[in-house]
Known about the structure:
This protein has helices at about 5-10, 35-50, 70-80, 95-105, 110-125, 135-150, 150-160, 185-190, 195-200, 230-235, and strands spanning about 20-25, 55-60, 85-90, 165, 170, 205-210, 220, 225, 240-245, 245-250. It has about 250 residues and is α/β, with parallel strands linked by helices.
Amino acid sequence: MNRKAREAEGPRRAAPRAPQGERIYAIGDIHGRDDLLQELQEMIQDDMREGDAERHTVVFLGDYVDRGTANYDVLEWLSQGGIPGAENIFLIGNHEAVMLQFLQDAEIGRDWVRFGGDTTLASYGVRIRRENPSIGELLGAQAELQARLPKTHEHFLKNLKLTYRAGDYLFVHAGIRPGVPLEQQDGNDLIWIRNRFIDSDADFGCVVVHGHTPNPEIQSRHNRIGIDTGAYFSGRLTAVVLENDIRRFLST
Length: 252
């Protein structure tokens, strides 16, 4: 490429980097697959023993509950602190947000049970019809969940973070709205946005690491890394590993 062509292309952006001396693991949507979570935990702990990183951080991107069957077990393990030997950061997904909403507003349960909340309720011993439950049934299920939800699970859910920033990476559940400064992003977009973000080729000013939108393959782009590989139906739970300017992946 000649000099004029390089100038027309503009300055080349440096490769995104994790903070010096830190290795970051970000884990995609778990959706009640405690078996895969434990398998990936072992893979991460084995990986942590390699190399010379001074510190390790594990970022969970949300959607711990619904659809899979071991939702209670997933929240029990996460609420105990996550992976030993690392700083664990827990983000909120749209499924946790709806679960919390159901504890306050029973009527949201009609939507929640249709997109996977029935399996979360069942993991706490609460049974409800998936199709068109009555308001009485919803109120009964809400009361049962309130009674059976351990305080440690409730505290965990209420203290989940929306975002985490480290080096040139921003970690969120779903994504961000293109064209909106990071400090002005709406919380609903961070846990719900899909196509407007996924289809964007914009430079976000950071690389966004996200889950939420399942794909058979890892989505590793210049502006985002999507690691929801549909664990609850595919059996593939994925983590991205970020260290210096390297990105690599671990999958069950």
